[in-house]
Amino acid sequence: MMTDRIASLWPEIVLFITLSIVILLGLSPQAQWRRLTHWITGLGLAIALLLSLYAPEVTGLPVPALAQFIKPAACIMGLLLLLGMSAVDDRLETRLAQGLKFDPLLTTRGEFLAFFLLSLIGLMLCTSATDLIWLFLALELTSLPTYVMVASSRMKNVGHEAAVKYFFLGALSAAIFLYGFALLYGATGSLHLDEIRAALVAQYEETGSVSVLGLMGVILSVVGISFKIAAVPMHFYTADVYEGAATPVSAFLAFVPKTAGFVSIMLLGGMIVGLGEDGQTWPEAFRVLLWVIAVVTMTVGNTMALLQSSVKRILAYSSIAHSGYVLIGIIAGPGLWAAGTGAAADSSILTSNGFGAVVFYLLAYGVMNLGAFLVLACLHDPERHQDLESLDDLSGISRRHPWLAGAMAVCSLSLLGLPPLIGFFGKLYLFSAGVSAGEIPLVVIAGLNSAISAWYYLKLAGLPWLGQPSAVTDRLVPTPYLGRPAAAFLSAVGVLVLMVAGAPIMRAGSEATACDWGGAASVAATTPSPIEAADQRQSMLPPDDIDP
Amino acid sequence: MLLALLLIPLVTAIAVAAAPEKQARALALCGTLVGLLLSIVIAVQFNYQDAGLMQMPMSIAWYDTFGLNLSLGIDSISLVLILLTTFLLPLTILGSFTAVTQRAKEFFAWLCILEAAMLGVFAARDLIVFYVCFEFTLIPMYFLIAVYGSANRAKASIWFFLYTFTGSIITLAGLVYVAWAYQMSPEGTGNWTFDIATLTAFCSEHMTAAQQGWVLLALCCGFAVKVPLFPVHTWLPLAHTEAPTAGSVVLAAVLLKLGTYGLFRFAVPMCPLAITTYAPLLAVLCIIGILYGALICWVQTDVKKLIAYSSVSHLGFCVLGLIALTSIGISGSVAYMINHGLSTGALFLCIGMIYERYHTRAMDDYSGLAKVMPVWATFTVFFILSSVGLPGLNGFIGEFLCLVGTFISGDGANPGTLGPMYAAIAGFGMILAAIYLLYLAGRVLFGPLKLPDTHHHGHDDKGDDHAAPTLPQDLTGREVLVLVPIAVACIVLGVKPGVLLAPIAAPIEQMVSAVSEAHTRHAALLIDGAPPGLPPAEDDEAALASAEPMSRDIDTTDNRPSELGRKEGLGQ
């Protein structure tokens, strides 16, 4: 089994080797060696992508197939982000261009990319967590590098301020979810996810409900982790940090820690899924908590976004709102995968799988949000030494940059969920999972929230085309780093391609989250035995059909 | 074939966007004319014997996880609306040749995209395809209003978008709810599908009256905004007034019909029990809309706003006829959709023509135009009369059938829950329509001559007046060419309404009988309690009596088209 685990970790190992090389090369006094760091990072990511696509299936994980979806997704997003990150950290190069001497203390490029890779490794490790220690370390490995990335991405005080805020709130959240982990340990006497699950199930079968201590543990962990996904009440940092960090880093923050957070919530939720009173999916306290968090998160995100004038802040609040939507998928739970009812056919198993909707939406959100952020990073205002930021800057850019304006329109309309763009199908999946779980009021609230969000997404999509160019708009110059527009267009194209051909990915996402959640099926009286459930799963999953 | 019909405008749009500025309009015109030709070919190939069946079906898998397919098909109702769309679009484009001078390429490209989306709505056989097209009409329209509109365009376009988007999201929730209920039911055996025929049959047969009520409410949220019905109509006058001429024409002639088409295609057949219960409520909203819209028209000083409010008033009739649930009323309602599209579209074109010359919409600025623009005046009076409902022209037939349908609704021999009172009150709307439209004609066309100063721009701030001097005072040949086909269509439909009414009869009969059947079934289920969805009168027996002859009739003559239609839908 140990060798199995290691075999499944090859993508992470490759990335780790890459980052060791990159951090050394970044210190090189020769410019061409330093320039190589980007290429090597890209190469490492590409190899990791291939390895993760053909990784052997590992037994013994709580959700065995999850890694097969999240890891390739992380690598693909990593490649896109890397393209977009080109030259975030050009302090040394500007110094050298001014004729100053090479100073190894100023080299940030290698470190920056190393931290970038470390954070991605953290995300990938989250998917294969088997115990709480592993989960904690993976989560922190995702978050800690991001603090440094925020601080070093922009040589301005705003960057440092953002990093400090982010760090302190991150530390607070880590304390909260560690406390939750401790309670879980106290309640069950184990750190191992399987054993925790087994202990909670045993308590449930004895008393008909999950023990208060165990439930508190899960709830505290989830509340702590809600920092990573930028959900209310741990959302306060989002707007400031996204605004303070360099734009590509903001895009990174909106995908990597968020995905890690949702993966952990799924794993921790897996401890108590199916253990609700009267055979509900969730214990009532947990469901109500998530319900309230989801509603407040999406509403706060959308209403605050209405009031902003900075595009980055709008996208930050939109990121909060989207976490609220994704929580619908968590509340819907793994659907019939957990209940294990045998009568249902293939498509309803897939569509009622809220966790599948979560991972699919995260990927779709990652792509469209990345596009929207990177369009901002493509235009530079030489007078203020910053990228495009406020709505006024965006006004009328279509006259001079029609393609960028087009990418912005595609991405922001997709974020709005306008059919037939991919955001619509993501939301459709989330909402139908919600409806399947009987959460109709929640889905209606989410729908109304989408309508509120139409106001600001329309501004983002429309202003470049409809607004009058301002003085700022005229002095905007395209960024010299071609990777950024390339990544922005690739994201916009990705939105369009997924729109046409997203079905296999949706299926893959659903299958990736498919498992019996540590014997949830064995809890409910009507469900078949684990062997039968496994047989069903075999018959439901055509083995050659898995195409992440 | 249908796919080609959808693709032609899209390809045209791309070609227009890529072509040089000068060729753009000609290219757009050609593309839409090809679309018209193709739709005529489709109309010729259409099998009118089985007009109630979905014909020319096609299906491509899309998101198969959801059972979501790109499936298209048309019955005769879709066909006539498709013809209306493809007929009006080339004329609209021809009519805006000189009106749009800035960013003309985009303008025509957006119009073509809009056409594709509208055709998609009418040809969709899958709920999500329908919804995708329904929503996607917002984007081209948003840009048409926001870029090419007049002074208040920013507000108008945002209102338009937010209003309709909010409404239709709730509609989507309702539709997903139906699809979910279907896959949970024994009929669905756990498979998701968004096939319209399957879900309609399921919803009408297996959902309780209360469930149908919720579905109806959700559907109405989206469709009533689009129609628009009384309390949610406020976006319309604003959008109409601010939109460019072509935008107003398409908005009035086709986009509003998406709402009535939605009600026709989904609300009534999906919720037969609920619609009978709530028909009086909806009818009250329609009648308020009819009278209130008409009264507002009376005091309007802005020509475009007047026509916009007249749309609110007129579409009230259309929905009233639909929810009367008698075959006469529904025929009238469909005829009204077409006729309103023709006459109101033409009126907006006429107004656009003088707006292009004088850049003001205020009625006070004009008087006695008939003296200097005799040709224009002739057309305008003609379309005003058609809109008023002068017998012999097209407007009359729809209005008359709607009112008759409402009148006989629920009288024992006919299904439905409306009655003479509703028809009588709504009838005042016809009188008011005559008053305000003739008042408009009198003020603007006759009386002492008064022309606005050409250099005075009224509310307009766009300053695109450099087109104006090139136009002669009366209509050019091109403008006449725009109006003549519509006028001919008005006369044809007025003199020989059978051209329109004969093909649409079969699907309507089918729908009415399906509604009756649903009630019969419901009554049989609740034999010892008063079924909530039935007309109050002597309950079960009356409903049975009224329902049975009709269904038997269908059995023998039409070979149960509803069953066939459903099977055919399932087969795809």
Report what the structure shows.
The complex is a heterodimer of chains A (548) and B (572). Chain A has a 3-stranded antiparallel beta sheet. Helix content of chain A is 72%, strand content 1%. Chain A has 548 residues and is mainly α. Chain A has one domain (2-545). Chain A has helices spanning 2-8, 10-25, 31-53, 66-85, 91-97, 109-127, 132-153, 157-188, 193-207, 212-225, 237-244, 247-272, 284-306, 311-332, 336-339, 346-351, 354-378, 391-394, 402-416, 422-436, 440-466, 471-475, 483-501, 503-512, 530-540, and strands at 379-381, 386-387, 477-478. In chain A, a hairpin with a 4-residue loop joins strand 1 (379-381) and strand 2. Chain B has 2 domains: 2-512, no CATH class; 516-571, no CATH class. Chain B has helices at residues 2-18, 21-45, 76-95, 104-123, 127-136, 138-148, 153-184, 196-206, 209-226, 235-242, 245-270, 272-298, 303-323, 327-358, 369-372, 374-388, 394-408, 420-445, 477-495, 498-525, 539-557, 561-571; strands spanning 55-63, 68-74. Chain B starts with a helix and ends with a helix. The relative contact order of chain B is 0.10. Classes of the chains: A mainly alpha (548), B mainly alpha (572). The A-B interface holds A 343-351, 413, 418-420, 424-425, 428-429, 431-432, 435-436, 440, 443-444, 447-448, 450-451, 454-455, 458, 462, 465-466, 502-503, 506-507, 510 and B 61-67, 128, 131-132, 135-136, 138-139, 142-143, 146-147, 154, 158, 161-162, 165-166, 169-170, 172-173, 176-177, 179-180, 183-184, 188-192.
